[in-house]
Specification:
The chain is of the alpha+beta class. The protein has 3 helices and 6 strands; from the N terminus they run H-E-E-E-H-E-H-E-E. It has a 6-stranded mixed sheet, sandwiched between helices. The protein starts with 10 loop residues before the first helix and ends with a strand. 16% of the residues are buried. Bound molecules: coenzyme A.
Length: 137
């Protein structure tokens, strides 16, 4: 699974990233259906005293399994993990053009806090990045 405009990432690169996240106390979650990987999500915490209460989230669900509630379940699992770690702020970014994902996040309680103009490059075009966040207790 990969973001739009990205090439495939090798299994070794994924393994390295997951090991690094484990060492740092971050989390990676996967969703499986019939032995197949259908979803990936993760959260990375701030490194310093000043931002340890913040985690940055990412998620991707295989298109064939979208709109079955898997994404929402994974986001809530990340939220549970965040609470257990004392994280009080969840952040993410999403392309302005990704209306479906923006709606998904809004329904989960994320609010738009800003926009980074032309922050993402897809081929030869630039897209704005929308910054969203949710405070949890
Ligand atoms: C966006 C994404 C994570 C949502 O995961 P999902 O498992 O499909 O979402 P869920 O089934 O849990 O959806 C929960 C609700 O979110 C909203 N939603 C989800 N996907 C939506 C879409 N494409 N368009 C509009 N609303 C959407 C709906 O309200 C949905 O409830 P409903 O299906 O009962 O109407 C997933 O579709 C995905 O990975 N898309 C491609 C990659 C991506 O955009 N990742 C996020 C990048 S920041």
């Amino acid at each position: 699974m990969r973001g739009p405009g990205e090439g495939p990432r090798s299994a070794a690169a994924w393994r390295d990233a997951i090991e690094r996240h484990k060492r740092q106390g971050d989390i990676d979650l996967v969703a499986e259906a019939d032995g197949q990987l259908v979803g990936m999500s993760g959260a990375i915490r701030g490194e310093y005293a000043r931002n340890k209460h913040v985690a940055t989230l990412g998620i991707a669900i295989r298109q064939s399994h979208a709109r079955h509630g898997i994404g929402a379940a994974m986001m809530l699992a990340l939220e549970d993990w965040a609470r257990s770690q004392g994280v009080t702020r969840l952040e993410l970014s999403v392309m302005q053009s990704n209306k479906g994902a923006r709606r998904f996040y809004r329904r989960l309680g994320y609010r738009t806090e800003g926009r980074k103009r032309r922050a993402v490059k897809l081929g030869d075009s630039y897209v704005d990045e929308v910054m969203m966040a949710k405070q949890i207790s």
